[in-house]
Amino acid sequence: MGFFLMLRDGTLSSLQEGVFRTNCIDCLDRTNVVQSMLAHRNLEIVLKKLNILQQNQHLEEQISFEVLFKNVWADNADVISIQYSGTGALKTDFTRTGKRSRVGLLKDGLNSLQRYYKNNLMDGFRQDAIDLFLGSGKLVSLLTIEKGWRYVTFPSVLLMAIAMFVASVIFPQEYSTESLLYLLFWGSMVIAISLNIFRHGVEFVDKPRLTQG
Question: Phi and psi dihedrals of 139, rounded to 5?
Answer without folding.
Answer: -65, 135
